[in-house]
Amino acid sequence: MTTSLYNLKVDILNHTSNLDTNNNEVIPTLSYKAIKKSILLLQSWVNHLPPLYGVSEADIADIMPLLLFIEATIYQIDENNEIHEDITKHSSVLRNVLNQLKLLDDAVETLIQQGLTYYDLETQFCLGKIPTPDDIDSVCLGKSFDYGLLSRLFFKLTGQPDHQQEILQVSRLAEQIIEIRSDLKSYNEDIERNVMNIYRMFVRLYSSEAPQKLQIYLENLHSQLQGKLKLLEQNRPDMAEKFISIWNNIFPEDRPLPEIPQPILEEGNLVGRVTTAYTN
Hints:
The protein is built from 13 helices and two strands, in the order αααααααααααααββ. A hairpin with a 1-residue loop joins strand 1 and strand 2. The chain is mainly alpha-helical and 280 residues long.
């Protein structure tokens, strides 16, 4: 049964009959791979944010088709960008659908822009650009923009209370940490595929100093996360407790931190590997 906090605005989603006909362009095809990956991410997302509000997967069945469409579209953008195909038709349709459902506000548009900035930086990076520290910040924020977008829409469609901004700030920091940890595990594979990887950016910018620089960067994110959690504990101790419980399930204390791999120094093709491993 849905909780008193849960107030799904299904009426917004009932006026969708003109979505297809109002588009001025053909809706691009979504690949099976994009849909499959989007389902996996949605399963993960459903286990993180909605439980903070006592909302179960069954509770959000009515809005799941919209969330699936959005996430699959984003994965299709990611797929196309990796092979240097046009992504504007997908981002245009995404905006169009959200706009017609009256879900496209400034905050949602900001998240979409963060994602598009990420894809642009990914293209430049994979073509050989040396990133700046600002580029790294933009990639760390933009790589998980879909999580932020899903969360924003969840709040808009479920009428959650005013403290949502505090939860979003905590969640966005946690998402950046998760993305970096994931990229550490896929570092070698991402080099071979020539796709974006946050640690790969550090190596290209800082060379052999990359492990130490990344460690400092991670520590700063953790410090910011702890600071936001302390504020949340003061204002909403119940929400802070739930978030910490979910976070500890993702990263239990007995699970070792991922090792920061030996930096691979790239110049065109792979040319060398620093010999000293670094463990955070």
